[in-house]
Amino acid sequence: MKLHSIDTTIVDLPVARPHKLAMAVIDRHSQVIVRVRTECGVEGLGEIAIIPHYGEEAPGAIKSMIDEVIAPYLVGYDIRRLEGLVQFMDQIIKNNAYAKGGIEMACVDAIARALNVPAYQLFGGKLHDSIPLLWVLGNGVIDKDIAEAEARLGDYKLFLVKIGKGDPRENVDRALAIRDALGDRAQVRVDINQGWDEATATWGIGELQAGGIEIIEQPLPGHNVEGMRRLTERFTVPIMADEGVMTAQDALRIAQRNAADALSVKVTKHGGMLRTKQVANIAQAAGIRLFGGTMIEGQIGTSAYAQIFSTMPNLTLGAQLFGPHLLTDDIASPVIAFKDHALVVPDLPGFGVTLDTDKLKFYQRQACLLYTSDAADDTPC
Ligand code: MUC
Ligand code: MG
């Protein structure tokens, strides 16, 4: 299965409402779609969803990294040697996890399609037929978040409130008001997205824990491993790392320092499905629980994430794969089903997704988008 070509397209997809995070407001969501084709005519699809200001890579840079730097070296490579392909990409260029992860994802889809098996079969097989789902409340306004949670209760029993921007007192009050409104009908977690310093976190987590918040995600900057250790030791409410765990080495450091109770795993930030499984294996060995994270993927990425999540024994905290519900249109056929507050892991060959080339053309980026930190603004530049 020698690689013949790699194509990339940037798309900007519509969302149901502006999604407010500590670092950005998303009112159109950007993805780089990767299509690989082998010399024997097998095709595979990858999706790199990008949360603005979350990581180190951006859509245009990812596209040119793949088109101009990585792809020229990969033509003719036998993609069945998947671990070799990942190591080869690391020789071509350091870091650039999103770009490499998108290529690897598309190769996994192609290999599994050629073998006529679901992708999870390449990673040890499926342990979970379905994965409990979490909806992210990102209005930044109490009444809107409560109304949205009420409307979503049919599909979701786990909610995550995005805080970490603005007044910490307002952040805590908003999360607790949502928690009180939902009562025992749902669990409520928070994601601070690195927004607090340690003193604020020590105060804020105390309040959130007393108010019944279920999990606290990434309160401190990702590099502050010792601060995360102190919070993990101090509080009984689980502390989860997200931005603090990008690489397998990060996972190892967190495990060695007892610097989190849980990790949020994401194929894109770890640089592919093999590397995500590596992080999961370290967590499993250390007794750390996993949460299936998201970068707000559509059908391709959500299926890919679900495939690898389904193979992880310690993925016991559900998954944030709400992308297909937040995005109001997609460039691929629907393959994701939702049942009993959970996502059903697809059993079709590969990721089971078919590209809609008309939609791909329709949503293809025409101009660069500029995201601001406090307004749903997309001024062309
Ligand atoms: C994050 O920090 O988990 C993904 C979805 C969302 O609402 O936030 C992001 C990133
Ligand atoms: Mg997070």
Order of the strands making up the biggest sheet: 5-6-7-8-9-10-11-12
- The total count of helices amounts to 13
Distance, first to last CA? 41 Å
Listing every helix as H and every strand as E from the N terminus to the C terminus, the arrangement reads: EEEHHHEEHEHEHEHEHEHHEHEHEEH
Main sheet characteristics: 8 strands, parallel
Q: What fraction strand?
A: 15-25%
Shape: globular
Rg value: 20 Å
Sequence stretches where pLDDT stays below 50 over 5 or more residues: 375-381
The total of beta strands comes to 14
Into which percent range does the helicity of residues fall?
Answer: 25-40%
Helices and strands: which structural class? alpha/beta
Bound molecules: [(2S)-5-oxo-2,5-dihydrofuran-2-yl]acetic acid, magnesium ion
The residue-averaged pLDDT reads 95
Briefly summarize what is shown.
The chain is of the alpha/beta class. It has 13 helices and 14 strands. 52% of the residues are buried.
Describe what this molecule looks like in 3D.
With 381 residues, the chain is α/β, with parallel strands linked by helices. The protein is built from 13 helices and 14 strands. Helix 1 packs across helix 3 and helix 8 packs parallel to helix 10. It is globular, with a radius of gyration of 20 Å. Bound molecules: [(2S)-5-oxo-2,5-dihydrofuran-2-yl]acetic acid (MUC) and magnesium ion. Magnesium ion is lined by residues 191, 193, 217-218, 242, 264.
